[in-house]
């Protein structure tokens, strides 16, 4: 009886417990059914989230163009490869959609991904063993070209798929790279999802990043566990808004000239730094800007110099600053160009160290101040500031020319120089470009006042912003006058003085004469402070050799600044050799290209020739037609058809520019007399291993005329400057070290 009572008691307890549990569970279910929530989470939203796929729709980044509409930067479609390794993905299908044979798949993919077959196989088999749905291949599987993707698709490998990405691409490689800059893909996590977008890192890409990048869209839809859309997917789409396009003032033709000659000088003279900028002095439009070292924005690794030295690297500019000194004296009415003074050495007072002319203080005797400018006399400059103008008035002109502030150019990273003006000697040495520091763009901006009737204009590189979808101009830059530090009369006077530097018998800039145009300018040989302290570096190569020039000098249409730091010079060479090589090549050809009328009697026809379609045409008849139209043509080989050319169809070239036509049976031409640029073009077209000795024009070639040419062949050439045995004696200027 006692056992029966216990049994009934325990049964009652269990019934009560189960009843309570049932009530709790039933209540919980009723609550969930009524509210649709579990622990504050909506079941409907949770289920919708689990079965909904959402993807970002990337906007296309705006393009960057030159002033003629040539594309300088754009988004290139690339592809990321991935492999589906889940066997369940192919259930019920006639053809498998997963990797069936990891070994065969790895062998097929290895040549395209640059990986060993066993590496690929290990990744595939590891994914299968770990029960993963898909496998990726790291960096080797990213940024694949369309051609590579198409070739892999032709292999019909089960389970191999691609996802399209974008890669910022620069078709001209190391072309105005420190202006354009570069952009790269970055990854950020937004609400648990990795979002990829391209952002500007340097140059215009960084400066105009918000304008260029646009706004991403998205797409969402309901799916099954294999990411396939349901029959009623409840799809939501927000279209992406592409970025706007940016047009630069840079001119592809002139920029190419700059890039070519900078590369040649870099190879020939191996300088520490090279800088060049070309600008329209009437408007402030920068037509070309280049530096060495530079970098390829498609592969910005191991970059030696990130800075755009034209705007970011102030230094002591040397005697090019004398243009400001003379302009200030003329404007103040204290200048008499015919007045004589004793050149050589000048000491303002006993407390100030003496200033010496660059020829170790020997000077040039008693000469006029006009001749002092042409000869680049430091003594004349010092006397003008100390005795005629006054140091405080000179400082006012330095500030009026905006040499104490940034130019405001629309590029990131501009740095202003510093006027060193604390001690009397510093005030004197600033007059000839020593002590105080400025950037090339500051000096070029100041020089626009001389070239533009006294009106100084602001430099700029962004021409306009255009809506990429409609082509409508959203914003457009206009020339901006930012001051008038001197009068038109002073500007005209300065043009005559700049003319005398290049074209007079005593001028220090004879090497900068152009063939068809009268150029004027001011050369500079600036000392380099010793990085270890204590004065300046010594030695004939330890200078920054420079020139600021403009042409035609009566009414300048272009202004150009060139600087070459510490070139390696042969005993027969001087510092102005690489500088003049850059200036003359770029300025002469740029003026012709811009159809500026020569102010000298032309030595040969310089009309522009529009090149017709060349590739695939008959070689002989095409050559004859081009020559008939005034072109200089070299046919490479005796084949029937043209396979390549250094000039593209539709380009306009100068009549003296060589057109190289490669035939389907190429052989070595006679290249004696060719320029370095023409030799490099031939080497690029034929993929030759080129080695050059010297600079100027070809005097010997290692491959005999008529020999068969093949890609990868070696070609060595020796070059010499024209009239190298009968060069004028140059007056080389410099600045004396401070004690």
From TrEMBL:
Annotated spans, Disordered: 712-739
InterPro entries, sorted: Beta-lactam/transpept, Beta-lactam/transpept-like, PASTA_dom, PBP_dimer, PBP_dimer_sf, PCN-bd_Tpept
Positions with biased composition (Acidic residues): 727-739
Domain PASTA: 665-721
GO cellular component: plasma membrane
Any GO molecular function: serine-type D-Ala-D-Ala carboxypeptidase activity
Sorted UniProt keywords: Membrane
Protein family: Belongs to the transpeptidase family.
Name listed for the protein in its UniProt record: serine-type D-Ala-D-Ala carboxypeptidase
The species this protein was found in: Oceanobacillus piezotolerans
């Amino acid at each position: 009886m006692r056992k029966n009572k216990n049994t009934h008691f325990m049964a009652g307890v269990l019934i009560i417990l189960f009843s309570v549990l049932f009530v709790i569970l039933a209540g919980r279910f009723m609550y969930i059914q009524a509210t649709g929530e579990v622990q504050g989470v909506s079941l409907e939203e949770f289920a919708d989230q689990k079965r909904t796929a959402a993807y970002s729709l990337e906007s296309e980044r705006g393009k960057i163009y030159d002033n003629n509409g040539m594309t300088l930067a754009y988004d290139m479609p690339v592809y990321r490869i991935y492999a589906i390794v889940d066997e369940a993905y192919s259930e019920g299908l006639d053809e498998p959609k997963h990797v069936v044979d990891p070994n065969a798949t790895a062998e097929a993919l290895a040549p395209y991904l640059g990986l060993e077959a066993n590496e690929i196989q290990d990744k595939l088999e590891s994914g299968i063993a770990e029960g993963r749905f898909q496998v990726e291949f790291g960096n080797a599987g990213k940024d694949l070209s369309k051609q590579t993707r198409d070739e892999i698709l032709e292999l019909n490998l089960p389970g191999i798929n691609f996802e399209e990405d974008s890669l910022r691409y620069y078709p001209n490689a190391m072309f105005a790279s420190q202006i354009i800059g570069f952009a790269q893909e970055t990854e950020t996590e937004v609400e648990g999802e990795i979002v990829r977008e391209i952002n500007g890192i340097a140059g215009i890409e960084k400066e105009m990043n918000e304008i260029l990048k646009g706004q991403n869209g998205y797409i969402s839809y309901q799916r099954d566990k294999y990411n396939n859309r349901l029959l009623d997917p409840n799809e939501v789409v927000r279209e992406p808004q592409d970025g706007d396009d940016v047009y630069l003032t840079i001119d592809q033709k002139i920029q190419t000239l700059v890039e070519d000659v900078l590369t040649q000088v870099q190879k020939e003279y191996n300088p520490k730094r090279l800088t060049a900028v070309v600008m329209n002095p009437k408007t402030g439009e920068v037509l070309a800007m280049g530096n060495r070292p530079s970098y390829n924005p498609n592969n910005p690794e191991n970059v030696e110099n990130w800075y755009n030295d034209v705007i970011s690297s102030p230094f002591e500019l040397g005697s090019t600053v004398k243009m400001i000194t003379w302009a200030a004296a003329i404007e103040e009415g204290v200048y008499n160009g015919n007045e004589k003074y004793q050149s050589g050495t000048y000491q303002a007072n006993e407390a100030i160290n003496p200033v010496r002319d660059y020829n170790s203080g020997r000077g040039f005797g008693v000469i006029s101040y006009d001749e002092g400018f042409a000869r680049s006399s430091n003594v004349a400059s010092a006397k003008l500031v100390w005795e005629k103008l006054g140091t405080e008035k000179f400082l006012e002109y330095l500030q009026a020319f905006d040499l104490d502030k940034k130019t405001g150019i629309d590029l990131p990273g501009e740095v202003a120089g510093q006027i060193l003006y604390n001690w009397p000697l510093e005030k004197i040495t600033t007059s000839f470009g020593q002590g105080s520091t400025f950037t090339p763009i500051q000096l070029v901006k100041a020089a626009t006042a001389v070239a533009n009737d006294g009106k100084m204009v602001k430099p700029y590189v962004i021409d306009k912003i255009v809506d990429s979808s409609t082509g409508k101009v959203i914003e457009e830059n206009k020339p901006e006058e930012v001051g008038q530090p001197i009068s038109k009369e002073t500007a005209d006077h300065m043009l005559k003085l700049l003319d005398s530097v290049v074209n007079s018998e005593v001028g220090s800039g004879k090497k900068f004469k152009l063939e068809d145009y009268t150029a004027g300018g001011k050369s500079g040989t600036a000392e380099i402070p010793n990085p270890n302290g204590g004065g300046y570096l010594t030695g004939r190569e330890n200078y920054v050799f420079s020139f600021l020039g403009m042409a035609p000098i009566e009414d300048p249409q272009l202004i150009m600044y060139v600087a070459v730091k510490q070139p390696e010079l042969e005993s027969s060479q001087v510092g102005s050799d690489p500088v003049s090589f850059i200036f003359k090549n770029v300025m002469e050809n740029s003026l012709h290209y811009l159809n500026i009328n020569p102010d000298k009697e032309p030595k040969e026809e310089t009309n522009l020739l529009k090149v017709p379609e060349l590739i695939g045409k008959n070689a002989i008849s095409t050559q004859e037609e081009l020559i008939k139209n005034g072109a200089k043509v070299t046919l490479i080989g005796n084949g029937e058809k043209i396979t390549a050319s250094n000039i593209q169809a539709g380009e306009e070239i100068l009549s003296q520019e060589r057109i190289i036509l490669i035939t389907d049976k190429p052989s070595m031409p006679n290249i004696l007399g060719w320029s370095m640029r023409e030799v490099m073009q031939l080497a690029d077209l034929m993929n030759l291993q080129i080695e050059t000795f010297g600079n100027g024009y070809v005097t010997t070639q290692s491959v005999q005329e008529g020999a068969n040419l093949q890609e990868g062949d070696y070609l060595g050439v020796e070059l010499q400057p024209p009239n190298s045995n009968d060069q004028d004696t140059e007056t080389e200027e410099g600045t004396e070290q401070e004690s």
